[in-house]
From TrEMBL:
EC class: transferase
BP terms from Gene Ontology: isoleucine biosynthetic process; L-leucine biosynthetic process; L-valine biosynthetic process
Family per record: Belongs to the class-IV pyridoxal-phosphate-dependent aminotransferase family.
The protein's required cofactors: pyridoxal 5'-phosphate
The protein's name: Branched-chain-amino-acid aminotransferase
Gene that specifies this protein: ilvE
Superkingdom in the source lineage: Archaea
Entry EC no(s): 2.6.1.42
Length: 305
C-alpha cells in the first residue's frame, strides 16, 4: 500500500489530499457510520491505458449499502464512475491503484439518530500492489464468528462491521497465520476477513451461498462467470470446516486479494501444499481479464484515458 495521491475527490470537488481532513468528533469515526467500496484499476502497458474493473457494479453495491444503512450518497452511479475517472486523470495515474469510495456521517455530534445528519462522499485512490501473497497463504479458522445476517445486514459494506474482520485477522496473525476464515453462526464457512472463499473438490468449485452471512463479492461473481468459460462447474452450497481441510484446492477472491491460493488451513496442508492447477488457471484468466486481454469482458472495464 503506497501513500495517498495529489488529489482526492470530496463532495464533487477535487481537492489536495492534505486538505481532506475531518474533525475529531466526526460521527463515523466514533460509530463506524460509513459505507465504502474497494475498487481496483489496472494499468495495461499493451494498450497504454488504465482500466477500472467493474466500476458500475461497485457503485451499485455502494448505493445499496447506503440505502440499507440510511446514509445519503448524494451522487448517482454514473456520476460516481465519472468522478473516479476524473480523479485518476487528475492524479495522472499510470500504475495499478486501489480506489476507495466512502460515504460517511460527517456531522460532529453525539447522537445515534442519523436521519438528519450531514454526510460526506469521497473517493481516494492509492497505489496498490499485492494484498495477499499470490504464491499462497496460510489461513486460520478463527473462533470469532462472522456477524450473522439477523444481527446486521451483511450485504451492506459498512465501516463499523469491519471490526469483526479486524479482530478475526488479529487472532489469525497473533497465531502466526496470514489470513482468517470466519464461520457463520451455524458453523459453516462464511468468508475471509476481506475475501470470499472457494474450494475445489474433484474438479468442481464450491462457494458459500449469498444468503449466508457473507458479502456478495464482485470477484466472487466474476469467478462464477468465468469458470463456465474454463469448463468448470460452480456450486453454491454450505461448506463445513472439514470440507476445507480435505479440499483439493482452496482460494480466496476479493478486489484486493484478487484470486489468492490458500495452501494451509489450521496447520493442515491443502492438496500438496502448492497452489492448485484450477486455482492457477482461474487466477491467470482473471488477471488477463482485468488487464483488458479478454475481449468478451471489455464491458466490465472503464478506460480512464
Ligand atoms: N468479503 C469481505 C468481508 C470483504 O471485505 C470483501 C472485499 N470487498 C469481499 C468479501 C470480496 O468482495 P469483492 O470481491 O467485491 O471485493
Amino acid at each position: 500500500v503506497g501513500e495517498l495521491m495529489k488529489y482526492v475527490w470530496v463532495n464533487g470537488k477535487l481537492i489536495p489530499e492534505r486538505e481532506a481532513v475531518i474533525p475529531i468528533l466526526t460521527h463515523a469515526l466514533h460509530y463506524g457510520t460509513s459505507v465504502f467500496e474497494g475498487i481496483r484499476a489496472y494499468w495495461s502497458p499493451e494498450s497504454n491505458n488504465l482500466y477500472i474493473f467493474r466500476a458500475r457494479d461497485h457503485y451499485i453495491r455502494f448505493h445499496n449499502s447506503a440505502k440499507i444503512m440510511g446514509i445519503k450518497v448524494g451522487y448517482g452511479i454514473d456520476e460516481l464512475v465519472d468522478a473516479t475517472v476524473e480523479l485518476l486523470k487528475a492524479n495522472e495515474v499510470r500504475e495499478n491503484v486501489y480506489i476507495r469510495p466512502i460515504a460517511f456521517v460527517s456531522a460532529s455530534t453525539v447522537n445515534l439518530d442519523i436521519r438528519d445528519l450531514e454526510t460526506t462522499t469521497a473517493i481516494i485512490a492509492i497505489p496498490f500492489g499485492h494484498y495477499l501473497e499470490p504464491k499462497g497463504v496460510r489461513a486460520k479458522v478463527v473462533s470469532w464468528l462472522r456477524v450473522h445476517n439477523s444481527m446486521f445486514p451483511m450485504k451492506a459494506k459498512v465501516g463499523g462491521i469491519y471490526v469483526n474482520s479486524v479482530i478475526a485477522l488479529l487472532d489469525a496473525k497473533i497465531s502466526g497465520f496470514d489470513e482468517a476464515i470466519l464461520l457463520n453462526r451455524d458453523g459453516y464457512v462464511a468468508e475471509g476477513s476481506g475475501e470470499n472463499v472457494f474450494i475445489v473438490k474433484d474438479g468442481v468449485l464450491y462457494t458459500p451461498p449469498t444468503y449466508d452471512s457473507i458479502l456478495e463479492g464482485i470477484t466472487r461473481d466474476t469467478v462464477i462467470t468465468i469458470a463456465k468459460d474454463l469448463g468448470l462447474t460452480v456450486i453454491e452450497k454450505r461448506i463445513t470446516r472439514e470440507e476445507l481441510y480435505t479440499a483439493d484446492e482452496v482460494f480466496f477472491t476479493g478486489t484486493a486479494a484478487e484470486v489468492t491460493p490458500v495452501v494451509n488451513i489450521d496447520g493442515r496442508v491443502i492438496g500438496n501444499g502448492q497452489p492448485g492447477p484450477i486455482t492457477l488457471k482461474i487466477r491467470s484468466y482473471y488477471m488477463d481479464l482485468v488487464h483488458g486481454k479478454v475481449s468478451k469482458y471489455m464491458s466490465w472495464l472503464t478506460p480512464v484515458y
